[in-house]
Amino acid sequence: MISLTLFLLLLASAWSDNSTLPTEYHITIVPEFSDLTFTSETRITIVVQEAVSRLTLNSRGLEIQDPKVYNSAAEEITGVGFTRDTENETIEITFASDLEEDGIYDLVFQASGTINENYDGFYAAKYTKTVSGQKQERTILLANLKYYKARQIFPCFDDLTHLSTYTLTLVRPNDYISVSNTAKTSTADYDTNRSKDVFAPTDPIPPYELSFAVIDFVEEEFDGTTVYSVAKEDTQYVGELSSQVAQKFQELYPVKINKIHQIVVPDNTLVTNVVDNIGLIIYKESAVVYNEIRESVDDKQEIAKLVALSVIKQYQRESFEWWPNYWAKIGTLVSYQYEVLDQLHPTWRLHEQFVTEELLSLLEDDVDGRDISVVLPENQTPDVFTKSQLLKSFSFVRMFSHFPSPADILEDETNAAALSWIENKGYPLVTVTRTFNEVDNNITFVQGNLVLRSLPVNIVFENQEGDSNNFDFVLDRSEIMSNYRDYISSSWFTVNLERLGYYRVNYGTPNWRNLARFLMNSRNDIDTISPLNRAVLIEDAFYFNHMDRLPVTLYLELILYLKRETDFFPIYAFIKTANRIKSLLYLTSSAQTKFMTFATRLVEHLYENIGTSLNSTESHIDTLSRTKILTWMCSFGYAKCQEEMHALLSSGGSTHPDLQELVFCGGMRRGTLENFLFLLDQHMQRGKKRILRSMACTSDTEILRYYITAVVNESAIVHLKEHDRVDVFMAVLEGSDLGVEVALNFAKQYLEQILIKFTQEDIERMFIALSRKLISDPHQQTINAIIECLTDEQKVQYGDLFRTVTNTINNNKKWRSSNIGTIETWLDANEITTVAPGGENTTTTVTANNSTTTSTTTTPSPGGGAADLRISYTLFVVFLLTCIFSSTQI
Ligand SMILES: *[C@@H]1O[C@H](CO)[C@@H](O)[C@H](O)[C@H]1NC(C)=O
Ligand SMILES: *[C@@H]1O[C@H](CO)[C@@H](O)[C@H](O)[C@H]1NC(C)=O
Ligand SMILES: *[C@@H]1O[C@H](CO)[C@@H](O)[C@H](O)[C@H]1NC(C)=O
Ligand SMILES: *[C@@H]1O[C@H](CO)[C@@H](O)[C@H](O)[C@H]1NC(C)=O
Ligand SMILES: *[C@@H]1O[C@H](CO)[C@@H](O)[C@H](O)[C@H]1NC(C)=O
Ligand SMILES: *[C@@H]1O[C@H](CO)[C@@H](O)[C@H](O)[C@H]1NC(C)=O
Ligand SMILES: *[C@@H]1O[C@H](CO)[C@@H](O)[C@H](O)[C@H]1NC(C)=O
Ligand SMILES: *[C@@H]1O[C@H](CO)[C@@H](O)[C@H](O)[C@H]1NC(C)=O
Ligand SMILES: *[C@@H]1O[C@H](CO)[C@@H](O)[C@H](O)[C@H]1NC(C)=O
């Protein structure tokens, strides 16, 4: 559990020009819906710090009349000159005589401009509303001024660090409402059809935090928040949750969150999932509406995380000037997000989910040659921060928060311990070994990297009382040895509990073996090692094996205990490693089949335990684990699973959202074109990613090939939204072995479109994921052919990426040559005993080579023949057209 002492951040002042400070803005905005233009009147109060003869403000795309300047006695200053510099987006006001030091002046501007339709700053967006059964096209106006967009509406000191109060007046049609950062204080008629709303002054904020909307929505009151939406459909969850989060956060920390206005807008009216400003949060509908008959527990968690973080960011008011060590600030906000949600929903075990899901992906990506830096480049705004950077920032804060005084590290930009982490790439690999006799218990910790970091370490021995949640010492040399005499009789120890430190740990063979024996022995309580620590052990064991630093047999011995496991997290960690091994064993059908049988046998006891239907008394994690574990068992050829799911899918009835991925993906393994089209139709109605993922579970090459071209082809019949494209590529790649070939050929054939269509970051993600699955010389040759097709410029741009890809393929090939034989021999030699769930160890003994999965549909089947494929393709197109036609009627 994370517990951070709240640290309030001082406002660092680094203004580029300190001669004048704006303190107050009074702005009136009059938008015209008819021609999408607006006028604005702005009064800026400034305090002059030192006598000046000119002032520079920002403006972009505005027609501005000559400004008027008044002194504090409200007398107009004469001799004012005015010039505009469109290139530099500035305007300059010059004075015949200097403005006096300590003088207070008002600058008054009349400006006009256009409301754009490109989601840029102040924009208009259309959506379809149903009014008494009739569909109407309606227009709403939204303002998102992040960053440097305030100057598009009114002249201002658009400097990010200039904090002022803003008092906004907005004119709106009578049948619309207006919303801004603060509460409305008055409303008056503007003309016959329009009203004028005045909002309370904001606290001092930078210009980009100002936000407003003119909408024809309805409102719903919750404790501490108002939610505006088109029709109050499924918005109750956002309202209730945001109110609970604000309450809990204020209970835990001495902060005050003012009333929040939240607008849920139709998807096509907002580019990102959320725009969060102080007092006003705008969400995209699909990112937050919740209805239990449509959304899964997974969706619910994602909504909760998004809403919680947006609400907690309300408190960032204390810390606008946070760019220098942005990672510490944003990482801290994320740690509050997890802490608050963990308290509101302890049974969701979100923190454990973070360690086994997000943190794990991060560790995988952070060694693959992608430099995930948490440093926000100079002169960049936080919107350039990627999700990986955000998660890495949180991982650092999570680590530092377990030091004795975290605030020292997080607040001090020059702290050496922090710098040793943020200035270096990747993360350390630590090896811990033990030598002992009757008097000594010597444990040696080695950080095996060239760069040394201040590495926080904790260690727990078998018979140690209690669970230490803080670090025992800091390893800042390459090696430290300690004598732990008190624990001389312990057979095992674990280091870096719950992966609090951002690093991996390898042990000597005896410790791995003792851990495996301990977990295996039914007299021992496996919870002596917490579920999360068991998950970390499994994951690290495979990682070090793949790095050629641990024999695969140690990994296999460790996972044997899983037949005693019932907790989701260790099994989830295992599933991830098993998927990697299955891909690595690709094209060696006997070893792969044996391994798949073995792996499913290990967790077979859960199939009946979890059940294939929902149980009204089950926990959140039970529901989540059903999807993940059973979907995986189907993918590993577990015959019973595939049969049941195919029957359910083909029955065509409605499927509960929490069973959809299981039934849809599991069923698609044996599914037909008809099943695929059924899913496509489901996706068009609901737009859920899990349906897109399930479609990639097909075992039909032709369908898969057609499906993946939709990633680049805008006019393909399977029409994908922009933000779904990379996910579909990943789904095909991860869906089956067949998908690997399809994805690789797609990457080669459509390289040109891929390079045009995607960002460098997306391209890197796609190729790195692909490379993890490539294992043969022909694979490498295809990659070489891809490299050959690049222009010289692209060869430079993607040089690092393709070096990493080639490296990964080489490592995979190396792993295969040294591990496949060993795995097969080991599997042949080890019998798997399934323990009946009740604890009664009545046994069905199965030898590892008793293959029941010969019918697995994940192996590419040469069957069919060209004629069949042609027929299926024609049918496919016919079906698709019918399908599109029928779904547009809905
Ligand atoms: C503005 O003030 C800050 C802090 O008072 C100072 O560090 C900075 O150098 C000043 N900038 C100028 C241009 O005087
Ligand atoms: C824009 O600013 C630069 C640097 O201050 C200056 O050299 C240039 O002349 C400016 N452009 C115009 C059109 O004044
Ligand atoms: C108010 O609306 C009516 C009916 O749409 C229109 O005829 C009239 O011109 C509008 N008045 C103003 C001031 O826009
Ligand atoms: C433990 O370390 C001490 C100090 O280096 C050494 O004297 C002793 O022999 C070591 N004991 C074992 C069992 O390695
Ligand atoms: C539902 O789950 C509970 C606890 O997990 C179990 O005791 C009960 O038998 C289950 N009910 C059904 C109908 O499966
Ligand atoms: C994209 O899809 C359309 C419709 O299926 C097809 O006619 C077109 O040839 C495809 N374009 C490419 C580049 O594959
Ligand atoms: C069940 O397992 C326990 C502990 O491993 C063992 O002592 C016992 O003999 C086993 N019972 C049967 C029926 O195999
Ligand atoms: C297991 O496989 C080995 C070699 O592949 C074979 O000799 C043996 O008969 C098999 N055992 C069973 C029970 O099928
Ligand atoms: C093992 O294989 C034999 C022969 O194919 C089969 O009869 C038996 O049911 C299999 N055992 C299990 C548990 O699948």
Q: Could you list the spans in which at least 5 consecutive residues all have pLDDT below 50?
A: 1-16, 833-872, 882-890
Kindly report the average pLDDT value: 88
CATH superfamily of the domain at 217-322: Neutral Protease Domain 2
The radius of gyration over CA amounts to 30 Å
Largest sheet: 8 strands, mixed
CATH-assigned fold name of the domain at 217-322: Neutral Protease, domain 2
How many beta-strand runs? 30
Q: What percentage of residues falls in helices of 4 or more residues?
A: 40-55%
Write down the overall geometry: globular
- Indicate the structural class: alpha+beta
CATH class value of the domain at 217-322: Mainly Alpha
Count of alpha/pi helices: 28
The CATH architecture classification of the domain at 217-322 is Orthogonal Bundle
β-strand amount: 15-25%
Terminal-residue CA separation: 47 Å
Question: What can you see in these coordinates?
Answer:
The chain is α+β, with helices and mostly antiparallel strands and 890 residues long. Among the domains are: 217-322, Neutral Protease, domain 2; 323-422, no CATH class; 832-859, no CATH class. It has 28 helices and 30 strands. Strands 1, 2, 4, 5, 8, 11, 13 and 14 form an eight-stranded mixed beta sheet that branches. It has a five-stranded mixed beta sheet with strand order 16-17-18-20-19. β13 (184-191) and β14 (194-199) form a beta hairpin. α15 (620-635) packs parallel to α17. Mean pLDDT is 88; it is low at 1-16, 833-872 and 882-890. The structure holds 2-acetamido-2-deoxy-beta-D-glucopyranose (9 copies). One 2-acetamido-2-deoxy-beta-D-glucopyranose binds next to loops.
